[in-house]
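Reference record
================
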Amino acid sequence: MKLGVKKKYEQSAASRSNANSSEHSDLSGRDRRQSLLHLEKFNLDWELRSLIAGFLLSVCLVCVSIAATVAHDRAERVRTAEATIESEAALVAAYSRFLEAETHRVRTAVAAPSLKPAANDAVSLAATSHRDLSQEANAFLSLDLSDIQDAKNQGLERTCLAQAIYYEARSEARVGQLAVADVVLNRVASRAYPNSICEVVFQGAERRTGCQFSFTCDGSMKAGVNERLWKRADDLAGAILAGVHKPITRDATHYHASYVNPPWASKLAPTASIGAHRFYKFPSRRQRRFVERNALANAKLAATRPSADTMN
């Protein structure tokens, strides 16, 4: 009887120990799985944080590069504006010197006596008696009148240049007026245009359309002129013909108002945008190829766009 009780006790103790060991093994397996899950979660959090940090760093670099580009563009615009102001200041200074010289010359001419003092009659008769009157007559007949004709032509050239400045840019600043005059002078120097200012300005004026400068054929010259603005244009034309001239349009031979887009503009090379006008010149071979490719691309783009009829 005692042996049977003892055996049952040992069997129950063994079963309890087996249950405890299995329970302990289950707990250790569960802890291992939880630690593995925690480690994987930590790795995922670390990768996510690394990705976010890299993204934020990239955003910072992009912002820095954009700020640097904006600062560079702003500095470039400031340098360009300063160069333009310096150039215009030099032109204004040269123009002021010219006006000062002209004022001094006019004052000297006004202050000088208008009549020569009468010569002594005895001296005149004595001098005349010793002269060869035939030589004086021959000298007068052989007098070269080309200087007088040149002075007259210069007066006409100044008037034509002043008309171009007045009718094309009278409401603009001086730099805009100088740009228009620069185009006229560039055409005079070009083999593609006439050799004088008046011929360049009034080229095609006999036609209602097709004139080179619109004011010569649209009736603008029939209206009266503003005396103050005309004097300003005339003074500037005189200063330019006297040598106060700088090629500010970069050899431009064409221009148009900034609010229009004529078809010929796409075939020329742009040079500058001054005042209310945009300036162009005949392109070189490389520029011509670029202009042709650009015109072809614009034509293809216009062909692919839906027209107003198809949209309606």
In short: The longest helix spans residues 2-111. The two ends are 112 Å apart (CA to CA). Confidence is low (pLDDT under 50) at residues 113-133, 307-312. The longest strand covers residues 269-274.
